[in-house]
Amino acid sequence: MAAKYLNDLATLVSLCKRRGFIFQSSEIYGGLNSCWDYGPLGAQFKLNVKMSWWEAMTRRADIVGLDAAILMHPQVWKSSGHVDGFSDPLVDCKKCRTRFRQDTAMVDGKVVCPNCGSTEVTEPRNFNLMFKTHMGPVEAEGSVVYLRPETAQGIFVNFENVATSMRKKIPFGIAQIGKSFRNEITPGNFTFRTREFEQMEMQYFVKPGTDMDWFNTWKETRWNYYATTGVKMEKLRFKEHGPGELAHYAKAAFDVQYEFPFGWNELEGIHNRSDFDLREHQKFSGKKLEYFDEAAKEKYLPFVIETAVGCDRLALAILCDAYREEQVAGDEGDTRIVMGFKPRFAPYKAAILPLSKKEPLQEMGMKIRGDLAKSFVVDYDETASIGKRYRRQDEIGTPFCVTVDFESLEDGKVTIRHRDKMSQDRISVDQIKNYLDDKLVNF
Ligand code: GAP
Fold first, then answer.
1. In this structure, what are the phi and psi dihedrals at residue 212, rounded to the nearest 5 degrees?
2. Is the pLDDT of residue 1 over 70?
3. CA distances to 126, 150, 291, 334 from 86, in Å
4. How far apart are CA 172 and CA 136, in angstroms?
5. What rounded mean pLDDT belongs to the chain?
6. Which of 1, 35, 381, 402 is the residue whose CA sits 20 to 30 A from 102?
7. Could you give the CA distance from residue 247 to residue 270 in angstroms, rounded to a whole number?
8. Distance of alpha carbon 358 from alpha carbon 253, whole angstroms
9. Which residue ranges have their beta carbon within 6 Å of ligand 1?
10. Cα separation of 39 and 19, whole Å?
């Protein structure tokens, strides 16, 4: 079977809408630029993506989780350098009035308008990416708070709380998943760059001097994580940040890039943040954030290795990677679209499909659905022909279809179809759970 993979984003955007993965936000009002809503299947899929990362991080003995508030004391963002330094150079095209980032529009040393190609542009102005709002009923200067532009600061300001309450010894890490907000000048490419997004960040606190070793260890650990996602590894690569590209807090940094249909782009950042953040928070808060290393009998400010991946970006990479179109021979002839997710990411692990929507097949199908739902997220579909129902499930990536037919009433068995091989096994109803337990792991 020759497969065709995704080469344009529009095909995926259309599938995501058609199949309930991702909708444009506020669509009935014409939409809101760069904001997206995850539909029923998208919400489950994204939860599966988050769980995969959360488990990879927090099932280790040396990492604990955290869920900090989005709104933080405004001084946090002054100390972290975001109020002064978290900005992009903004320019306007004098011809067509398009507003864009100067640094992403350089061609042969000149700024070129991405819309009309003109080189006549305004002088760059620094545009701070943080969203501002006000806390309380009075919109005065003193009530300004920011929507966090990264989850990391919630971890830094809780370093002492976590280390003490959890009796953690260095090296150890804190992992967090949560929303971040950036007033991006040029959002786009579907969910790739948006103004509201979710991050999965982990800060690993280490003894100064051991930081570059840990940096390399985390590069390797994160690469190995991607190998478990089922994403094609030839579509991943590391890209080192040159001296001019480093963020204001970083001593060293690598991006993990994925080859999206619109080119190679950042999926994750791995940074050596040195002791920058703890030092700044210690200075401005007046609270001691030093760690006493009992083994070495010394006090120091830990260095931090950070791994930061956008949940929506990883979800987008998995969606792009999973898409394929296949010509199918035999009984199932025709073309089919398959979202070839690893089962752990699939919204449904199995779909129960009775051949008739009348009793007693319906009753048997519903009973199987109810039993399986205690262990797995499953779908139930009794509409349309069985061929059409298989195609629907292929298109949303369901690994197994459980067909209940008239013989099932006699022999108490069902037919289970494998999404990728399209092979079928006849299994006793009381064995379906065991069968799925085994086959989902060894898909
Ligand atoms: N705490 C470090 C930090 O935030 P970053 O490289 O700016 O580093 C980390 O962001 C990750 O967050 C990125 O690799 C990307 O996956 C995701 N991300 C950043 N900005 C985003 C945006 N506007 N839309 C979607 N994801 C974004």
1. -70, -30
2. no
3. 9, 11, 29, 52
4. 37
5. 95
6. 35
7. 11
8. 60
9. 150, 152, 182, 184, 193-194, 197, 199, 201, 266-269, 306, 308-310, 312-313
10. 9
Q: What is the DSSP letter of 148?
A: -
Q: Could you tell me if 234 and 255 are in contact, meaning their C-beta atoms sit under 8 angstroms apart?
A: no
Q: Which two tokens stand for residue 139?
A: 């919109």
Contact 2, 327 (CB under 8 A): yes
Q: pLDDT per residue over 78-116, tens digit each?
A: 999 999 988 888 999 999 999 888 988 889 889 999 999
Q: At what angle do helices 432-441 and 361-372 cross, to 10 degrees?
A: 50
Give the 3-state secondary structure of residue 90: strand
Count of positions (residues) in the chain: 443
CA distance 305 to 274: 7
Q: What is the mean pLDDT of residues 272-287?
A: 97
- Residue 46 exposed, middle or buried by CB count within 10 Å (0-12, 13-18, 19+): buried
Which residue's structure tokens are 């936000």?
Answer: 25
For 426, phi then psi, to 5°, come to -100, 120
Helix (H) and strand (E) counts for the chain? 13, 26
Q: At 240, list the tokens.
A: 């080192």
pLDDT at 48 over 70: yes
Closest atom of ligand 1 to 199 CA is 12
Q: How far apart are the first and last CA of the chain?
A: 18
Which amino acid, one-letter code, is at 370? G
Among 101, 199, 249, residue to substitute to test ligand 1 (most atoms within 8 Å of Cβ): 199
Q: Kindly give the distance from the C-alpha atom of residue 310 to the centroid of ligand 1, in angstroms, as a whole number.
A: 5
* 264 Cβ contact list (under 8 Å, min separation 6): 237, 239, 257, 258
Any idea of the CA torsion for 297, 301, 302, 308, to the nearest 10 degrees?
Answer: 170
Pocket test for ligand 1, best of 148, 150, 176 (most atoms within 8 A of CB): 150
List alpha helices for 21-180, DSSP H: 40-58, 74-79, 82-85, 152-156, 159-165
The 3-state DSSP class for residue 418 equals strand
The ligand 1 atom nearest the CA atom of 255: 14
Q: From residue 22, how far is each of 41, 50, 236, 395 by CA, in Å? A: 8, 16, 24, 14
Q: What's the helix, strand, coil split of the chain in %, to 5? A: 35, 30, 35
Q: Where does 316-370 show beta strands of DSSP type E? A: 323-328, 334-339, 350-354
193 Cα to the center of ligand 1, angstroms? 8
What's the token pair of residue 333? 């002839």
Whose Cα sits closest to atom 20 in ligand 1?
Answer: 193
